[in-house]
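In keeping with the milestone schedule agreed at the kick-off meeting, the structural modelling team has produced records for the first pair of proteins. Each record is given below as a sequence line and a structure-token line. The laboratory manager (R.T.) confirmed that both were archived under the project's standard naming scheme.
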Amino acid sequence: MSPTEQHTKIVLDKIVKCDFCKNFALFDAKTKAGQWAWMCKDCYPEKRYYSTLGLGKGQKIHYIINPKEGDPLLSEAMYEYLDRLQKMPEDERREEIKAMLEDA
């Protein structure tokens, strides 16, 4: 990871929720109110203080499935899947997650 990338990305091994709406967070960034928060893709444009990512501004979250040295970051397809999950009705989402965990 280059020095520039180090300040625009954060890698997590667990999913965190947006502090504002409880959807899956994709950013850890400074808010207009001054504090830092986990933010989803919908809340980030409205609540962020800075329009760019970087040191002291915010980072995009990259999730890893099984944190082991050398594991790749999740792909855009996984972000799309997480986005689809958060838009599902709760009972349907629970079934989807249950099935996913059974396959793991």
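The second protein of the pair:
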Amino acid sequence: MTVRIDRCTCSDRTFADIAAVAKESGVVTFEELRDAADFGKRCRLCHPYVKRMLETGETVFTELIVAPENVGYEDSDPDSTPGR
């Protein structure tokens, strides 16, 4: 089974869309991009993917990347589940 990860699920923004915001706005740091593109403010699972996207230009990933700060993280907000 192949995994396809292409978006921040909390904001439902694709990494391609986030990359376009980076290009258009000229931001270069993750923090600047997070504020400019309004993503990654809930579960933070997209953070390592966006950081890699900034480094490599990739916008679709086929491997799971877990940032150290997300190990053991549980979202206590039941409404943060996408689709609710």
